[in-house]
Design a protein that fits this description.
By secondary structure, this protein is an alpha+beta fold. The chain contains 15 helices and 25 strands. Strands 2, 4, 5, 6, 8, 9 and 11 form a seven-stranded mixed beta sheet that branches. Strands 15-16-25-24-21-22 form a six-stranded antiparallel beta sheet. It has a five-stranded mixed beta sheet with strand order 1-3-12-7-10, covered by helices on one side. α4 runs antiparallel to α5. The chain is elongated and about 130 Å long.
Length: about 700
């Protein structure tokens, strides 16, 4: 958020007041679990030794409080962040040791400067203190704490360290970090006096995020200071992040499980959930790297805004998948509001007053989350069980995060009681690991998300079992629609190829021998694809089989079948071609809107009536002809001619006629490779008159 701390992240975690967008104590540092385990082991190793040498502050000279006698301290490490001389502005002469700073104000730099009565508004300031170095001191190093300002260090006027750039060079605010610098000390047999000057600069754009005051400044000999600095860094990182690492170990398997479930189910909501966690990992990684390497604050801000926007989009898309929304306009609106809230953090760079920036962020992000809770609640009231499970963590997130956001708004508006609303910073216990109410909330929210994932997987598993059973039943139906591929009936050899566009299709084919030696062949195509078309096709096949022995002509069969389909509640039409071949080669054809057959590679002429199921009492005509002694009849469904290539070109009638003399399987394969879009059925009928005579 654009106030002193970014208040909200995608899953109820707020960002602390370190840099422009920094993380609160409860935000989990998402790293790989093995790394977290190693870091926790390091924690157990370093904690007993982290402060093996306890530095203590010296007692300043009463005549000059900014004079620090290292010999008097009698410590290998000495805390020197006592009272320093302070003056706003910038003058290079202030680095010189002989400059008279007795008129400067005294400031205890480790405490809040405003509380000490100093409210300087200038972008630059200088601090000075003097150290008395004992004789035979081999060298000195100074440990600077995390300062959220750019700075330079001087020893007797000589620059020896710093962080970030300072004017008049192009200067940009940087993220602070604990640093150690070598003080240029020449070993001497006599004690030495050295003036240390610190020049600070804060960016006017990011003054709200740059706190006045910083932690302990220590000075010591290198042989002691450097090992202690390493232990301090390890202890500082691990002790403050111990609960975060524990949360990482807890959450990493959930991230892995989400990716695994996506691979198993191909449900995008698992992928969106994983994407949200990855964005959170990237968000924290940006902060840690920026703090360690001293990145520019504006670049860090932009990177974290991008991570947070990605997280908000992922959460919104996860909710759309979770609630199975067909019209997700409200969730899309909530995503837009969340993205605007994240972008509103840039307002502080344009020097918008903090309370106003806080209020804009709070309004946008709370509106976003309120919309999401409302949609989840509505889905739960409609009986969607997973919505009820998800409602618990999302509501808990809304209450804790927005209470904290409101508390920061009050604080920035000058209402001290606002700190009581910042519940996530409430410390629950210090040992064995420090934990806050925000940590506990994060654990509960993560458990809620995990419960949702488990429930969804169990529900999907049950649904897949149900669909598997339905699919087996559909395949049984399909087997009734299309008979065995090859069969022989007197002089007629049949071959059938069938390729469904989905698991099951609506094309059907029947070869029905009659008692008088003739064979009735029926090819049909139900409008549509899938299980519904297959069910309608099964009705048509059942009716045809019941009418075969009535000795009706093809036109009679079509008229009767039309009446049955007209009365069918599905109101789906069927194209159908019915032909009868007598033992002597006489062929009778009736057509209800189906494609004409091919005889020896040439398209046959036949009357074409309306498809079945449209109009009751429609009269279907028929044509009778004599087959030649050797003939191949090819019957197809429109899945062949309507096959479409990747460029959109249709297979068409010319190509179909060109391959109509091939085997049924070859024709179907050619059409499929060209680009199948509908069910493909091909029936070839090879007629040989001599075989019939022999029989």
């Amino acid at each position: 958020m654009p106030s002193q701390e970014k208040r909200e992240s995608s899953k109820g975690k707020t960002l602390p007041r370190e840099g422009v967008l920094t993380l609160q104590a409860g935000l989990a540092v998402r790293q790989w679990s093995i790394t977290s385990l190693l870091l926790l082991l390091n924690l157990l190793w370093f904690m007993p030794n982290a402060h093996a040498i306890e530095p203590r502050p010296v007692t300043p000279h009463t005549s000059d409080p900014s004079l620090i006698d290292l010999k008097e301290a009698r410590q290998a490490l000495t805390v020197v962040s006592t009272q320093w001389r302070f003056h706003p502005g910038n003058d290079p002469q202030w680095a010189k040791p002989d400059y008279d700073d007795s008129g400067w104000k005294l400031l205890k730099v480790s405490e809040d400067w405003d509380a000490q009565g100093y409210h300087e508004e200038q972008d630059q300031a200088w601090f000075r203190f003097t150290i008395l170095i004992p004789a035979q001191t081999p060298g000195l190093v100074i440990q600077m704490p995390k300062i959220t300002k750019n700075y330079r260090l001087y020893a007797n006027g000589q620059e020896f360290g710093g962080m970030g750039d300072l004017p008049p060079a192009p200067a940009h605010s940087t993220e602070g970090a604990t640093r150690i610098f070598t003080i240029p000390v020449t070993p001497s047999q006599q004690s030495q006096r050295m003036t240390v000057a610190l020049r600070l600069w804060q960016s006017p754009k990011f003054k709200w995020a740059q706190r006045d005051g910083f932690g302990e400044v220590q000075i010591g000999e290198p042989g002691v200071m450097l090992p202690e600095f390493e232990r301090f860094k390890a202890f500082d990182i691990l002790n403050k992040r111990a609960m975060d690492y524990t949360m990482t170990v807890f959450e990493t398997p959930i991230l892995a499980a989400a990716l695994f479930l996506f691979i198993l189910t191909r449900k995008k909501l698992y992928l969106w959930f994983a994407a949200d966690m990855v964005m959170s990992i990237a968000d924290v990684a940006v902060l840690i790297l920026a703090s360690h390497f001293g990145w520019r604050s504006d670049m860090t801000l932009i990177l974290q805004i991008l991570c947070d926007i990605g997280s908000q989009v992922a959460i919104g898309m996860f909710i759309i998948g979770l609630l199975e929304l067909r019209k997700p306009r409200w969730i899309v609106l909530s995503i837009c509001l969340a993205c605007l809230a994240e972008l509103s953090t840039l307002l502080v760079a344009w020097r918008m007053p903090m309370p106003w920036a806080d209020g804009i962020y709070l309004f946008l992000i709370s509106s976003c989350e309120a919309i999401q809770i409302w949609q989840v609640f509505k889905a739960w009231r409609k009986g969607l069980a997973q919505a009820g499970i998800y409602l618990i963590p999302i509501a808990l997130n809304f209450l804790t995060v927005n209470a904290g956001n409101l508390g920061f708004l009050f604080l920035d508006a000058g209402v001290p009681s606002g700190r009581y609303l910042i519940l996530h910073n409430v410390v629950l216990f210090e040992a064995p690991l420090p934990a806050t109410l925000g940590d506990l909330t994060s654990i509960l929210i993560t458990l809620g998300y995990f419960t949702v994932l488990v429930y969804l997987f169990s529900r999907i598993s049950r649904e897949e079992q149900r669909l598997s059973a339905a699919l087996r039943a559909a395949h049984e139906i399909q087997s009734s629609l299309v008979p065995a591929r090859q069969a022989k009936h007197g002089g007629l050899q049949t071959d059938i190829a069938y390729l469904a566009a989905e698991e099951v299709g609506g094309d059907f084919c029947q070869i029905l021998p009659r008692a008088n030696g003739s064979v009735v062949i029926v090819v049909g195509d139900v409008a549509g694809k899938g299980l519904k078309a297959a069910m309608v096709g099964s009705i048509a096949v059942g009716a045809l089989r019941s009418m075969t022995d009535d000795q009706g002509t093809p036109s009679t069969l079509l008229r009767r079948l039309n009446e049955i389909m007209v009365r069918n509640d599905e109101r789906v039409f069927i194209t159908c071609l019915c032909l009868e071949i007598a033992p002597d080669g006489t062929m009778t054809i009736a057509n209800a809107g189906h494609l004409s057959p091919y005889l020896n590679g040439a398209e046959m002429e036949c009357d074409s009536g309306l498809p079945l199921g449209l109009i009751s009492g429609f009269p279907y005509g028929e044509r009778t002809s004599m087959l030649p002694a050797q003939a191949r009849l090819t019957l197809i469904s429109d899945g062949v001619v309507e096959a479409r290539s990747k460029t959109g070109e249709l297979f068409g009638f010319d190509r179909t006629q060109g391959i109509s003399r091939q085997e049924a399987g070859q024709i179907a394969s050619v059409a499929q490779k060209f680009g199948q879009e509908d069910d493909i059925t091909v029936v070839t009928l090879d007629w040989t008159a001599s075989l019939t005579t022999a029989v």
